[in-house]
């Protein structure tokens, strides 16, 4: 159902991905894939170092905003 409180909260916090000069064109699937892979590599590296994984949380909203819905 549209307009539920959880959807309104999600839309309120929605941000688009920042510009990445590695992927200057409008077609962004490779950028999405690269951010997805970087997210998992970051998490693995932080777990291996027994460090805080929260530094990798930046990647998830970025690659989710680039996912094509086709």
Can you describe this structure?
The chain has 70 residues and is mainly alpha-helical. The protein has a domain at 26-70: Orthogonal Bundle (Arc Repressor Mutant, subunit A), CATH 1.10.10. 51% of the residues lie in helices and 0% in strands. The protein is built from 3 helices and no strands. The chain has helices at residues 5-12, 29-48, 59-66. α2 runs antiparallel to α3. The longest helix is centred in the middle third of the chain and has 20 residues, at 29-48. The mean pLDDT is 75.
The count of DSSP E runs of length 2 or more, i.e. the number of strands, is 0
CATH-derived architecture of the domain at 26-70: Orthogonal Bundle
- Low-confidence sequence ranges: none
- Tell me the span between the first and last alpha carbons: 21 Å
Write out the CATH superfamily name of the domain at 26-70.
Cytochrome c oxidase, subunit VIb
Instruction: Output the CATH topology of the domain at 26-70.
Output: Arc Repressor Mutant, subunit A
What structural class should be given to the helix and strand makeup?
A: mainly alpha
Largest sheet, described in full? Answer: none
As a percent range, the share of strand residues is under 5%
The coarse overall form would be elongated
Number of helices: 3
The CATH class label of the domain at 26-70 is Mainly Alpha
Element string (H = helix, E = strand): HHH
Organism: Piliocolobus tephrosceles
Keywords: Mitochondrion
Region (Disordered): 1-26
Biased composition (Polar residues): 1-14
């Amino acid at each position: 159902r549209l307009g539920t409180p959880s959807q309104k909260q999600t839309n309120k916090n929605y941000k688009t991905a920042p510009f990445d000069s590695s992927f200057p064109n409008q077609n962004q699937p490779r950028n999405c894939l690269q951010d997805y892979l970087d997210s998992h590599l970051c998490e693995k590296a932080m777990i291996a170092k027994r460090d805080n994984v929260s530094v990798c949380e930046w990647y998830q909203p970025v690659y989710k905003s680039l996912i094509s819905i086709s």
